[in-house]
Amino acid sequence: xxxxxxxxxxxxxxxxxxxxxxxxxxxxxxxxxxxxxxxxxxxxxxxxxxxxxxxxxxxxxxxxxxxxxxxxxxxxxxxxxxxxxxxxxxxxxxxxxxxxxxxxxxxxxxxxxxxxxxxxxxxxxxxxxxxxxxxxxxxxxxxxxxxxxxxxxxxxxxxxxxxxxxxxxxxxxxxxxxxxxxxxxxxxxxxxxxxxxxxxxxxxxxxxxxxxxxxxxxxxxxxxxxxxxxxxxxxxxxxxxxxxxxxxxxxxxxxxxxxxxxxxxxxxxxxxxxxxxxxxxxxxxxxxxxxxxxxxxxxxxxxxxxxxxxxxxxxxxxxxxxxxxxxxxxxxxxxxxxxxxxxxxxxxx
Length: 349
Description:
CATH architecture of one domain: Alpha-Beta Barrel
Helix content: 40-55%
Largest sheet: 8 strands, parallel
Radius of gyration: 21 Å
Strand content: 5-15%
CATH topology of one domain: TIM Barrel
Low-confidence stretches: 1-12
Number of helices: 14
CATH superfamily of one domain: NADP-dependent oxidoreductase domain
Structural class: alpha/beta
Shape: globular
CATH class of one domain: Alpha Beta
C-alpha cells in the first residue's frame, strides 16, 4: 500500500481572540501606510503576498493611504480570500485626488528615496500637504465608508477607525451615533479610534460608545503610556499598537539602547548574553515582544514592505529567543529608564 504524504504549509503564527470583538488574527498585522505611497504597485503586492504566506491576516489601511488608492490595491490582493482576512480602515483624513502629474511626482520621489534615504523627512513633509485632516462629519463618514467598501471590494469593514481625531470628536454625538448605525447595519463590524495615547485614554475613560477598538503609537520608548491604556480598558476592546519600531531614527536608537542593556548590570547575565549581538532579528524580537508579550495589547502593525523584514518580524513572534520572564525583565528595566529620563527632563525644564 503506497504511503500518501500530504504537505501542509506551516503557519508560524496562531490566531488569537482580539478582545471580545469576535475577531481573530495573529499578533502581527500588515500596515498599508506605504502602499502606493513610498512603495509602488508591484512592490506593494509582493509585500502583501509574502505577509500572507507568512500567516499575516490583519491588514490595516485608511481612506487616505496611497493618496486614496491603497484600499483599492488591498482589495485587489484580497480578492478570493477576503473571508480569511481581517480588514481595518480609517476615515477623517482626505487625500487630494491623484492627477497624472502627481503620479509622476510620486514615482520620482520613490526613486529619490531609494537612492538617498536622508530625503525621507523632506518628502514626508511635502506629502503631508496633499491631505486634509480633521474631516469628522457625518457626511464625510457616510461618503468615506461607501468609497472604502467599493475600493476594497467588500460589503463590510471589520474595523473602522476615526483617523487621528482631536479629543473634541468624542463630543460629537451625531458622529458617534452614525458610527453606531454602521455597526448595526453590518457595514462595519467594530468601530474604533486611531489616535495619540491622550485621546485614546479619554475615549477609554469615557467608555465612548460605539468605540470598541483602540489603535495608538507604541514602541519600547513609550511602553509605559501604552500599558496605562491597557489598565484603563475593560479587557474587551481590541488594542492595536502602530509604529512599533518608532520610525527610522528610533530604530537606530533602539540598537544603541540594547547595546547599553547588554553592557549594564540591570539585567540577568543570561539575558545580557542574548543582547550582545544586535542585528535586525534581535531588534524585532525585543521591540515586538516587549509590546505584545503578556501586556494585553493584541496586535502590532508595522509598515513592512521588504520581504526580509516581514519574515524577521514574524519569526520574532513565533521563534523568540527570550522566555516570557526575560521579556518582562527587559520591559521593567526600559520602564525604569524611561521614568528616570522623564524626571530628569522635568528637572531641567
